[in-house]
TrEMBL record:
A family per Pfam: STAS
Coiled coil: none
Gene source species: Pseudonocardia yuanmonensis
Name listed for the protein in its UniProt record: STAS domain-containing protein
Domain STAS residue range list: 53-155
Amino acid sequence: MSPAPDSAERADTGAVPGLPEVAAWCGAAGAWERLDEPDSGIQLHLCRVGERIRVLAVRGEIDAAEATAFQNAAIDLVRTAKYLVVDLTGVRFLASRGLAALVRTQRAADDVGSRVAVVTGGSRVVLRPMQVTGVDTQLHLVDSLEDLERPDGSALTGRH
């Protein structure tokens, strides 16, 4: 279980506590922005990397109550970015509505010519529902940020 957000996290700048892998990558690239409501059961952290790449780090549970907020944020991002990375490594529960939100996000990206990659961290909580429903075949899944490449073919993380 992740700790409650602290005042530094709410300040929307720099690295975000509780997002070790993504914060190491995005913390120096720009400010983090919280997209969720303060008392919601889900945390949505946004990092803008350059003009065209966005990272949406999700923490908590993507259940029926939170799936709409996640979907709205993700679809808004694919409409304005060419590349969206959805980091689900901090997700503790992924309900069917969360799976549907991922599929809808991918379809919205396809409609506007954007790309989506989903970082799973190898989490069984995330992967198992995707495998059982076949959603894993509809998404570009990777274990970690190091597995991603920029749309131009260079390493997304800066590592080659």
